[in-house]
Amino acid sequence: MTVLAAISLAVTGFAVLVSSWWWIPAVVLLALATTGVHDLLQRQHSVLRNYPVLGHVRFLLESIRPELQQYFIERNYDGRPFDRDVRSMVYERSKGTAAEEAFGTERDVYADGHDFLVPSIAPRPVPEAVPTVRIGGPGCTKPYDMALLNVSAMSFGSLSANAVLALNRGAALGGFAHDTGEGGLSEYHLRHGGDLVWEIGTGYFGCRTEDGGFDPAQFAEKAALDQVKCVSLKLSQGAKPGIGGVLPGEKVNAEIARVRGSPKGETVVSPPYHKVFSTPRELVRFIARMRELAGGKPTGLKLCVGSRREVLALCKAMLDEDVTPDFVVVDGSEGGTGAAPLEFADHLGQPLSEGLLTLHNALAGTGLRGRIRLGASGKIATGSDMVKRLIQGADYTNSARAMMFAVGCIQAQRCHTNTCPTGVTTHDPRRARALDVGDKAPRVHRFQRATVESAMKIMAAMGVDGPHELRPHMLRHRIDPATIRSSDELFERLASGELLESPPADWAADWKSADPDRFAP
After folding, report:
1. Is residue 443 predicted with pLDDT exceeding 90?
2. Is 0.70 surpassed by the pTM of this model?
3. At the N or C end, where does the chain have fewer CB atoms within 10 A?
């Protein structure tokens, strides 16, 4: 911009002193310089703040619908072409503008794998009050009312300080929860007063001893903060189950190193496993210890489901010890990440649908479902996504990618390089300043509110008054062009206590071999 302004002034001088013909390029350059100054000062578009003038080319190309806009979407939403431009829908909702479109669906409703929700001939009125989910089992003394849609786990370090501030301030405005991710509890999580789910991973960042172990005193001190409403133990992440998180060294500045308790400038790799337990029984006992250290606040787990036998072993340990987590967040293998090997992202772990049903059935079959709330995370961006997951067994949902869209992410896929063009995932001060917290925080709030409202409208159209009335037969799945099955026809649902009384044939072998003193896939 400085160079452009200098050239503009020089050419204007030629126009005044040499020849009037110089006014033609002078006017063009002055217009560009004026546009650039405006771009630097405005706060709505992060791309323009970082790339004045040039950034308009991107918006011009994306305004040409539908071919060029679809072409310039950097990554398909779920590995297949978008049913609609989900990112644009999130942008519109976050800005408070209408998300309706003319004409009909862009989906191939006869394609194999197409899901649809069943509307009723007699829709219900949309409830004025949006329900919440009470988190807190028998061992919890400070239950928390969780919103139906919350900010999923994204760490400070992976995200910039401004992105964390915007997400938390948005959560405070809307009364929903903000999961810190495993990267520690920073001042940016605390500044605006939004409710927090403090996530502890294998690196124990924020409650870490010098040798990388768990520090109960640090944990108790921070868990006692009023803003921390729940604590969560991360076992695995959907995009990379079986390996720990990675934060490249170029992003580990002095501040992040202090929050995480790690060396500045060195790549931070979380271990793939926890030091504090090695068996299902030890894990359950550690959950009880965390809840005690947290003063009775809701304590839970987060995992990407792999082996059903290991899930059942965990359930047996819960029964033996009479200890249960207050919540379990199921992270689908389709979830995103800032950095992971492609093979892990594409080939390990159960997708969210299967993971949710596995957890729900295991807990129901062992009579534990009523004590534990299930959260769902993994590419949840719309009201229909929420309703689908609620039908499949979730009590509430979390969203990461769509929340990033709400604060300005354009999926440039530069998260791991510290060169994010919109300031969402960079710690370069010049780039990070492009994300204006005052503008983006209300967008997070508006997106969450509009998406929950959409889910409530969909449920009303299905003839139910809320999530408690949703049933598996209300979700249909196309097997092939001539065959449709409902969710209850495709997936078995175990009755409460069924595994304890008479395990179904296809569960019997896993149930028998599940060992509460051994993880064995």
Report:
1. yes
2. yes
3. C
